[in-house]
Amino acid sequence: MDKLTQVHTASHCQLKESKRAVNSLRDFVDDEDDDDLERVSWSGEPVGSISWSIKETAGNSGSSQEGREQLKSRNSFSTYAQLPKPTSTYSLSSFFRGRTRPGSFQSLSDALSDVPAKSYAPELGRPKGEYRDYSNDWSPSDTVWRLRKGKVCSLERFRSLQDKLRLLEEAVSVHDGNVITAVLIFLKRTLSKETLFRELEVRQVALRHLIHFLKEIGDQKLLLDLFRFLDRTEELALSHYREHLNIQDPEKRKEFLKTCIGLPFSAEDSAHIQDHYTLLERQIIIEANDRHLESAGQTEIFRKHPRKASILNMPLVTTLFYSCFYHYTEAEGTFSSPVNLKKTFKIPDKQYVLTALAARAKLRAWHDVDALFTTKNWLGYTKKRAPIGFHRVVEILHKNSAPVQILQEYVNLVEDVDTKLNLATKFKCHDVVIDTCRDLKDRQQLLAYRSKVDKGSAEEEKIDAILNSSQIRWKN
C-alpha cells in the first residue's frame, strides 16, 4: 500500500466500510490504553502498535498541541529527570504528552516534586560520592550514563558546537532512543535551524529520531523546513498534505487540497490527491442538497430512512454505498448518481456490485437486486452474472433477511455443487437440496435430508415422490 493510501485511508477510514457505511461512526482508539503508546527503537524507526497508527493518521491535533505547550514551558533538560528504565524502547507518547502513568516521563511539576526539599541544616555522614550528583562537570559519557539512569542533570554546560555534537554521538553510540531524543530536544533549542539540519544530515540515526519526534509533537513547520533542506520533495509534499487533517471546515479543506494537486508527488500519488479533492467537492454538493431534501420532508427515502451521518469526509466506498442507498435511480449526469461515481473514480465492477448489492438489499429492493445481476447478450437473451460470485450474493441476501424464494433462486445459480448443497442446507432452501440430490441420483443423501424437514410437509411429500419414482436410477 502506498504512503498516500495509508494516510488517506487511515484518516478517513475509522468507519466500517460498505455494508455498515452510513450507519456507522468513527470508533476512536481509547487514549488511555497502554498498548496505544508508540515506541521507538534505538535506530529511530517507529515500532508502535496498529491502534497508535490509527490515532496518528487521524490527526490527533489536540494531543499534539498539548505536547507543544508543555515543551515550550521547559527551559532545560532537567525537566526530563525521571527516566523509567534503561532500555531502548521507551514510550515517547507519555514523554511528550506529560502523562503521569507508571513508567512514563513526568511533567516539570511532577519532576520537581520528587526532588527532596533542600535542607539548610548541615548533614552528617553524607557520602562524598553524592556531591557529584550536583556537579556540572560531567563528560558526554557521564551525562549520557546519568540520563539513562534517570538522574537529574543539566545539559547547559555543553555550549560549543563541538561539545554538543560529542554529546549527541555519545547518545547515539549507546543505542538508547530516549536519550537520543532528549539530546535532540536540547540541540533543537540551542542551535540555529540551519546548523542543526546541516549536522544531522550526516548523522542518519539522529535525523530519523528528530523526524519522528517532530511528527509526534506536530511541529509541521519545522518538519517542512527540514524536508526542504534535505531536498526530500516527496516527503515534503506528503507532510504538507497531512495538514488537511487539522482542517475541520469542508470548504477550507477542499481549497487546501486544491493547493496540494501541484506538489511533487509520484504519478500514482498525484492521482490520489486529485481524486481526494474531487470526492470532497462532490460530497459538499451532495450533503447540501440532501440536507435540504431531508429537512423539507417531501422525499420518501429520507422520511423512511433518516440519515444517521453526514457524507462529508467519508471514504469513496462509503460514499458509493450512500449513493446506492439514497440516489440509486438518479440519472448518470448527476453528481450523486452511483453510475457517475463509478465512472469518475474508475471503481472496479466487483466493488461496485458488492456495494450496490449491500445497499439495495438493506432496503429490501429485490427488483433492483435482480436487475443488478441480469445481463443481455446481442441477441436479446438474458442471463444472470455475478462478478463477485453467487455464493457471496447469497450470503449478503441472507444477512439482509431476503425471502426463501429469492435465496433459492440465487443458491441455484452457484456452480459448485458442494457449495450449493452447503448453502442450501444452511439457509433451509429445501427445494434446492431436494432437486440437487435428485439430479445427483444420491438416494442416501436424500433419505438423510428427509429427516430434517417437517413431518407431513410439502417437502417431505416431494422427497417421498422422488424416492418412489421408478424413472430414477439411483447411484446408491
TrEMBL record:
The lineage's top-level taxon is: Eukaryota
Q: Which residues form the signal peptide?
A: none
Please name the Pfam families in this protein's record.
Answer: Vps16_C
Where mainly located? cytoplasm
Instruction: Give the Vps16 C-terminal domain ranges.
Output: 161-260
Biased composition regions of type Polar residues, renumbered to the chain: 53-65
> Which keywords does this chain's UniProt record carry?
Cytoplasmic vesicle, Endosome
Which one GO biological process term can you cite for this protein? vacuolar transport
State where the protein is found.
Cytoplasmic vesicle; Early endosome; Late endosome
GO annotations of cellular component type: early endosome; late endosome; vesicle tethering complex
Where do the segments described as Disordered lie? 53-78
Q: Which InterPro entries match?
A: Spe-39, Vps16_C, Vps16_C_sf
Alphabetized PANTHER family for the sequence: DEFECTIVE SPERMATOGENESIS PROTEIN 39 (PTHR13364), SPERMATOGENESIS-DEFECTIVE PROTEIN 39 HOMOLOG (PTHR13364:SF6)
Supply the name of the protein. Answer: Spermatogenesis-defective protein 39 homolog
